[in-house]
Specification:
There is one protein chain. The chain is of the alpha+beta class and 82 residues long. It has a single domain, classed as Ubiquitin-like (UB roll) (Roll), CATH 3.10.20.30. The protein is built from two helices and five strands. It has a five-stranded mixed sheet, with helices on one face. Strand 3 and strand 4 form a beta hairpin. The longest helix has 8 residues. It is globular, with a radius of gyration of 13 Å.
C-alpha cells in the first residue's frame, strides 16, 4: 500500500489575519486524506462564512474543489471596515 500525503500551502489574507492571529500569513497543511477547499478551511479552524472565495492557480475556485499535492491557495475574506 502506498502512503499518500497531501501538502498544501495556504496564504491567509485580509481580515483573516486579524481574526485568526494564531495563523501565520503562510500556513502549510499536510493531510493523508483527500482535501477540498472547505476541508482545508476546517483544518485551519476558520469559519467557512469568513472565506469569501479561494484562489488556486490564479483562478477563483469553488469551496468543494479538491486540492492537489504542492498546490498554493489564497483564502480571501469579505471586505470589512467602514
Amino acid at each position: 500500500m502506498i502512503n499518500m500525503s497531501l501538502k498544501v500551502t495556504v496564504n491567509i489574507t485580509g481580515c483573516l489575519k486579524e481574526l485568526y492571529p494564531h495563523l501565520s500569513e503562510r500556513e502549510v497543511v499536510e493531510s493523508d486524506q483527500p482535501l477540498s477547499v472547505s476541508g482545508l478551511i476546517g483544518e485551519l479552524g476558520i469559519s467557512p462564512r469568513m472565506v469569501l472565495f479561494a484562489v488556486l492557480n490564479e483562478r477563483i475556485v469553488p469551496k468543494d474543489r479538491q486540492l492537489f499535492e504542492d498546490c498554493e491557495i489564497n483564502l480571501v475574506s469579505p471586505p470589512a471596515g467602514g
